[in-house]
Amino acid sequence: MFNAILVQKSELDNKSSASLTQIDTASLPEGDVLVRVEWSTLNYKDALAISGKGAVVRRFPMVPGIDLAGVVEQSTHPEWNIGDRVVLNGCGIGEEHWGGLAQRARVNGNWLTRLPPTLSSHQAMAIGTAGYTAMLSILALERHGLSPDDGDVLVTGANGGVGSFAIALLAVRGYRVIASTGRPKESSFLERLGAHQIIERSELSTPGKALGKARWAAAIDSVGSHTLANICAQIKAEGLVAACGLAQGMDFPATVAPFILRGVSLLGINSVVRPAEERRQAWAQLADNIDSNLLNEIAHDISLKDTLEQAENLLNGAVRGRLVVNVNS
Asked: What is the fold, at CATH topology level, of the domain defined by 2-119+290-326?
């Protein structure tokens, strides 16, 4: 038996609820690798699954948790042996397949990535999907030619997990970062991460012009909707925008003007399903670029039981940085 957060749906009212419970290992879904989970995280998707406020969970019952890091306990997969240290982001866990908010997880070995030797399981989960998505966004921008000499890079949702890491990682790589936030009182935190300038979220979050003053060479946006439209309208000629989130909404109320008149490129970042080599590259770059002091600044440890309460705080925008879950406490 092991501890887990389990989301179940009532047959009476069709509503879901989450609780801390014990599960028999035999009840785990199919997979060729059993992982002893050491640390997980609480992400926005997990909070939606726990609260029942979003259609994240595709089947019930479900163990939420789109991240996990731990040690291989059993394996019939040719690439993985007992004792291997692994990390897993996305691939449908916590949505279609039981996820990381548990002490055990049985998964498809093809989904796993070997944890870089310089990172602990705790550090990997302090990074988690948020840092991983930020790095995927940066690598996509750089594959399309972005360099620090091109000019300022905007990061929206700056106080969130993706935004925090995007600022810090861009700064380490030599970029001048402009941070957009709805919490200006957190400006000192963003400056410690590496932001050169802070702008108010309201500058971008309402309907704007089809084409505005060219301000940034590139952007990483985790907000979507009017914010993403305004970003595209204010990117410099031949600039790049990496879209990786939809906190404001999944609509895109824009025109084709930035793409036709300025040659702007909009890059979609899918962090859930990536080729194995791309996942390895992202984690290798994270291991090289991440400062342990940064992780201490961004990450806050909670217990497995705490996730039930903290899910509401996360949805209400009351959480700064990352919530790292000790599944064994």
From this structure: Quinone Oxidoreductase; Chain A, domain 1 (3.90.180)
